[in-house]
Amino acid sequence: MTENGVRVLVVDDERAIRRYLHAALNAQGYTVYEAAQGQEALNAVVTDRPDLIILDLGLPDIDGVEVTRRLREWTHIPILILSVREQESDKIAALDAGADDYLTKPFSSGELMARMRVALRRSMQTSSEPVFETGDLKVDLAHRKVLIAEQEILLTPTEYDLLRVLVQNAGKVLTHRQLLRQVWGSAYEAEAHLLRVNMSNLRRKIEPDPSRPHYILTEPGVGYRLRG
Amino acid sequence: MPSDTRPDPDDLLARIQAEELQQKRGRLKIFLGYAAGVGKTFAMLEAAHQRSTEGVDVVVGIVETHGRVETEYLLQGLEIIPRQTINYRGVQLFEMDIDAVLSRKPHLVLVDELAHTNAPGSRHIKRYQDVEELLEAGIDIYTTLNIQHLESLNDVVAQITGTKVRETIPDRVIDEVTDIELVDLPPEELLNRLKDGKVYIPEQAERAIQKFFRQGNLTALRELSMRRAAERVDDQMRAYMETQAIPGPWPAGERLIVCISPGALSERLIRTTRRLADELNADWFAIYVETPQQATIAQGQRDRVAQMLQLAEELGAKSVSLPGQSVAETVTDYARRHNVTKIIIGKPRRSRWVELVRGSVANELIELSGPIDVYLVNSEVEPQVKPIGGARQQRSNWSRLLGGVALVAAATGLGALIAPTITPTNLVVIYLLSVVIAAIFLGRGPAIMVSILSVAAFDFFFVPPRFQFAVTDTEYLLTFLGLLVVGLVISYLTAQVREQAVAAQRREAQTAALYELGRDLTVTAGLDGVAETVIAHISQTFSRDAAIFLPEAGVLNVYATSHGLDIGDNELAVATWAFEHGQLAGRGSDTLPDAPMRCQPLKTTRGVIGVLGVKPSSSNNYLTPDQRRTLDAFANQVALAIERARLVEQAQQAELLEATEKLQTALLNSISHDLRTPLVSITGALSSLEESPIMDEEIRHSLIATAREEADRLNRLVGNLLNMTRLEAGAMRIHPEPCDVQDLIGSTLEQFGSRLEDRQVMIDLPPDLPLVPLDFVWIGLVLVNVIDNALKYSPQESPIEIRARLAGESLEISVADRGIGIPPEDLGRVFNKFYRVQRPDIVAGTGLGLSISKGILEAHGGKIWAENRSGGGTIIKVHLPLEGMVDR
Question: Which position among A133, B143, B154, B742 has the lowest Cβ density within 10 Å, counted as fewest Cβ atoms?
């Protein structure tokens, strides 16, 4: 599916990466704008009005997390951050500051496109779908029903809430903190074990093989993602 | 050896070396006079002014004007270096400031009165030693000297003037002089000057000086100084002739020996021999033979012998101390072995009687000397040498004599018991027994007394008529004679054996001490060990504290000391002097003799490598000459041992450096290879695609797939290297949190993606496994590495089993495969950096994975290890501590 007219702003100080992204996105029909620095990016968002921003965290002038924060002060544009492996804290900070998703360098074009699609779809959705379906999993948000291969599954209220939040953000990564906040409330932001235990239980109920989860994917050190 | 006209090459070499040395050394010019007041200082100052106008940098080191106006006048215009003040017992004395001169570094220095003795507390005892230090620094010197201050002429001058001069300088200083200027004044004129009051006379010595300044004396002294100066010229001429190979009356190679004894004659003998050696241009030796009797002489006499030997060395002889039974035999033996031509010995003043009994060394020597000439030197004045320590011996003598009497009494008693049964003659045996016992236990004197007493007792108590001293039978006369003679002989022999034994023991003790030191040093490694051993041995052998000084970056510093020994700045200064000059300094030497510590330089072929300091516990405790010799030998051993320890250290460091470099090179090669290999495929694939844009679809896919795989591999390798670096730098921060093991394993397997498609992976987890504290990301990495290994080293169709369970205080996760396994000896080694099981057919990774895993586990306080499975394959187990475990 070509995305005609969708505008993407690529922010990275490495010329080679900008070149590659430009070419790859062009090939898929996106219009690409480039920026090499944080301030440049902030300006470009105003002037070029992109639909999505691909933002590298390691910028020379302003930190990527800071750029995200400033953008989120006035816009809901989907932001995809590019990060280096094992800098989990940076990723978490950017995601908590409002970024939508992340990609770990080096990444494949397939991953990139998938994440972009998810992010764009969400931004364009005006109303949320009442029923979510993926594979054998079906979640009826209106009726609070969860079905695996048409079999209803009984979940505790917490487990359901957890699943619901994941479904509402399907395809997008959610940090532990975000999940805890949205399911338990901001007072429980540090109670990681709550999350893990409930996640473990949830998986046991909905995954065909809990040891090899298919629907709910673990993003190590960051959070979880429901396959979208 | 037949003498030929060609100069002796050894001599020539010595001369050339001396000349070379001279050029680096300063030049010494002596203004020599035969008495005070002839005008030496005046002449020196005039010459100095002359040089100054020639442009030479002249300074005055020290010049005594004694208030004479003309001399003072001549000092004007010359730069004078201020003297240094030395406080000695409340009196202020002024001496030349050597350091000031050295730092001033003039071309020429004027130093008056070469034979002067410095005030106590100065660096050197004598001024001529100061001058030597300046000469070595390359500074030229003008100095003044009176003829009577020459060591070798000391006794001649004493004969002429009747006064013995105390301040003497060794002749070798004169011999090394560049130039002598004889300052002469006819004696009549000198006497006039004396009358006019122009000659300096210290008030206290007025009468002595008056006696000195008599015409006859002055003339004789004048002749002596002229002759000495002429000799010097003669030497110079001969040296010139030799270098030019001018044929001349070369003297045959004469060699002299002078025999030294503790007697007072030795000093005169030595000086005489020196003069003789000079005249004959011969080498000479001073020999002291230590016979068994000599082994027991008093300490004072032993010191005298050492003094004499040292004097001989100062005068240019080689001093030798030899053990031996008989003086004459030892000396002639040595003489024959060293091609000696003349032996000089003193004519002893003993009565005929003593000569007959004791034997005269001189006579014996004459008999044994064969073709060697023997010179007997007479003595007219023999001052009495009081034996030191004689009194003490006396006391014990009395007790020994009493012991002897007791023995005779006992023998008599015993004899009385058995007398009825045997003839009296046989009782002689009992008395002989007592003589033997006396000789063994009481010494020679008592034994002889016992012999005589025995005869008397025998006669008195047992020979008829009894209880009377009368002999009726001539046969008993024979018995008496026999008893006496045998008794004397036995006592003499036994005593000699005893004395030999004592002497041998003493020598043996010294040798043993040296041997022990040498042996201990051989097995000691390391510099510290050597220092410890040396200090221990010195403490043992000499009962003294010791310190070893070694240079660090050119500056001498204390390296090791005995327990409780303090090294102050003073001691360090003395040691530094010894180190810089390569000479003995401190206590018992000529330099800084007031220092409490004796500093001996440690010399090897590479020069002076350190200093050995020895300090007695009390200041009255002096080393005997024997001990000094042993200490010298110790110092040699120590020097060698230290040098060896240093060299060993250097060798070890060099080895280590080499090994480290080799390892680094190997590592870099390995990493370089591993990084480049994936790039080969990637670059190859991309360039192929570029080269031929139209290509078979399958081939295209294959190329692209390969490039992708290799890119992934490179990514993993880079990640591994980075993690390794992080671990090494201690920059690995783990943040343990309660985690779900199932989650962990699941997300790990997810990372393998399509690699697991065709593989069978079995997961076995207990359902109620609690949350375990661990760092999710890092332990995840561990599992990735371990599972990666399992995948690589096992065949496609074999299963991988992942298991987790609680094991006591830990969580155990294990990954098992049915692969090629690990050789038992390598089970531990696989966790080493860059280790790979040596199998050529396996494509391996960098070998970092397991090592990184180990590091991560250790950071958690956990463990990881490998075991071989029965039935083939490997199982790798991970243990994580469960503190902070959270129950569900």
Answer: A133
The residue-averaged pLDDT of B249-266 equals: 74
φ, ψ dihedrals at B565, nearest 5°:
-90, 125
The pLDDT tens digits of the residues spanning A160-199 come to 999 999 998 888 999 999 999 999 988 888 888 889 999 9
Helix (H, G, I), strand (E, B) or coil at B110: strand
- The token duo for B662 is 């080799």
Partners of residue B603 on adjacent β-strands: B608
Give the ipTM: 0.86
**B686 shares contact with chain A (CB less than 8 Å):** no
Backbone angles phi, psi at B104, to 5 degrees: -70, -35
Provide the Cα torsion B659, B660, B665, B668; round to 10°. 150
B743 touching A (Cβ < 8 Å): yes
CB contact under 8 A, A203 and B742: yes
CA dist., res. B11 & res. B242, Å (int):
9
**Cβ neighbourhood burial of B760 (10 Å; 0-12, 13-18, 19+):** exposed
Q: 3-class SS at A84?
A: strand
Stretch (H or E) spanning B62: strand B58-62
Q: Does B771 touch chain A (CB under 8 A)?
A: yes
A-to-B residue pairs, Cβ atoms closer than 8 angstroms? 55
E-only strand ranges, B605-651: 607-615
Which residues 722-741 of B have a C-beta within 8 angstroms of A? 722, 737-740
Scanning B88-170, the segments in alpha helix (DSSP H) are: 98-104, 127-136, 154-161
Q: In terms of residues, how long is chain A?
A: 228
Of A193, A210, A212, which has the smallest distance from its Cβ to B738's Cβ? A193
What is Dmax (Cα atoms) for chain A? 54
Chain B residues in contact with A221 by the CB 8 A cut-off are 776-777
Q: Which amino acid is at B239?
A: A
* Chain B contact probe: residue of A90, A211, A224 with most B CBs at under 10 A: A211
Cβ proximity of B798 and B818 under 8 Å: yes
- Looking at the complex, report in whole angstroms how far the Cα of residue B724 sits from the nearest Cα belonging to chain A: 13
Output the DSSP codes for B469-504: -----HHHHHHHHHHHHHHHHHHHHHHHHHHHHHHH
The residue type at B183: V
Min Cα distance B712 → chain A (Å) is 9
Which residue carries 């670059």 as its tokens? B683
Question: d(Cα A111, Cα A100) in Å, to the nearest integer?
Answer: 14
* Chain A interface includes B780 (CB < 8 A): yes
Q: What residues of B are in contact with residue A92 (Cβ under 8 Å)?
A: none
Residues on chain A touching B743 (C-beta within 8 angstroms): 196, 199-200, 203, 218
Q: In 3D, which of B77, B63, B139, B76 has the Cα closest to residue B108?
A: B139
**Which residue of chain B comes nearest to A86, CA vs CA?**
B777
Half-sphere exposure of B22 (CA within 13 A, CB side): 14
Report the C-alpha gap between B48 and B589 in whole angstroms: 34
Q: Please write the tens of the pLDDT for every residue from B528-584.
A: 888 888 888 888 888 888 899 998 887 888 888 888 788 888 888 888 888 988 888
Query: What pTM was estimated for this model as a whole?
Result: 0.49
**CB-based burial label for B753 (10 Å; 0-12, 13-18, 19+):** exposed
Measure CB to CB from residue B743 to each of A86, A88, A196 and give the nearest one: A196
Backbone angles phi, psi at B601, to 5 degrees: -75, 140
Residue B607, both tokens: 């020069």
Task: With CB atoms and an 8 Å threshold, state whether B743 touches A218.
Answer: yes
Helix (H), strand (E) at residue A227: none
| CA B748/CA B835 separation, integer angstroms | 24
Cβ atoms of residues B412 and B457 within 8 Å: yes
**A88 near B CB under 8 A:** yes
